[in-house]
Write a structure and sequence with these properties.
- This protein has 2 domains: about 5-130, 3-Layer(aba) Sandwich (Rossmann fold), CATH 3.40.50.2300; about 135-275, Histidine kinase-like ATPase, C-terminal domain (Heat Shock Protein 90, 2-Layer Sandwich), CATH 3.30.565.10.
- The chain is about 40% helix and about 20% strand.
- It is built from 9 helices and 11 strands.
- It is elongated and about 65 Å long.
- The structure holds adenosine-5'-triphosphate and magnesium ion.
Amino acid sequence: MPRTVLVVDDERDANDILAHLVRARGFEPIQVHSGQEALTEVSRRRPDVILLDLSLPDINGFEVCDRLKRNRETNLIPVVMVTAHHDAKERAAGVRVGANGYLIKPFTPEQLHAALDEAIAWHDEHQGRGTTGEINFDVRSELTYLAQVSDMLADLFAHTPLTERHIKDLKQAIMEMGGNAIEWGHRKNAELVLRITYRIDPNAVTLIIQDQGPGFDPGNIPHAASEEDPIRHLELRNELGIREGGFGIMLARGLVDKFWHNERGNQVTMVKYYGEAPAES
Ligand SMILES: Nc1ncnc2c1ncn2[C@@H]1O[C@H](COP(=O)(O)OP(=O)(O)OP(=O)(O)O)[C@@H](O)[C@H]1O
Ligand SMILES: [Mg+2]
């Protein structure tokens, strides 16, 4: 049985072209022409991937994506958003539920095939891990929106075995690391978008906060507190003329079981286990 791809586009020609390319990759296309039809077919057919045009006549692509991702039944079906502009991906109006991938028009057949392959790989990886849910939020760089996301996540955490204490800790860790992304990564430029990913696995929740900034070297921040000498940096900050502080990373690190930055330093991953954390491998 070939895997199925739901093709959602109201323009008939564009829809047919997408379907043709989908078939050329060995998938079976299911073609629909509106947002409402898309939602109906998703629950009827459970496609393996959804190719979703952003501009639809009834319910726009962002709204369709939001509904699919907030629903536990459809949350793990990868959504590839097809848009005419980069803007759709890179500008966020407040808080938006993100797609798994974005395909910017005009695209080549190779780009479409790569997007389909990535979507399938994402799904298979999650299936293998036993993931029960994952959601991305694209967030405009403002503290009020960050707080909104942190509240929404706390509601989602309530469906996991995490205790109230853990949930409070995670909210604080999100505010600290999201705050860093806005203040240091984005230099408070509200046009930039923060991506916050939240995943529920059988034994833990994972939070990933990514900014579009230049990153930094987490191994070399003398103006931040360290466990060995938590106040030495205060003098240095004074000399450097940086505002008081320097405790965020140390604090967040202590609130979760695993904590690491990517190599560039613009993405932090935090893991909290429901029970005891497994020993470091
Ligand atoms: N996303 C980021 N992009 C670039 N630099 C960062 C980022 N996150 C942290 N940093 C750097 O790491 C330093 C330490 O961060 P930390 O959160 O520990 O302290 P702070 O933000 O300076 O102060 P506080 O969090 O206590 O208000 C920051 O001052 C900044 O130089
Ligand atoms: Mg900070």
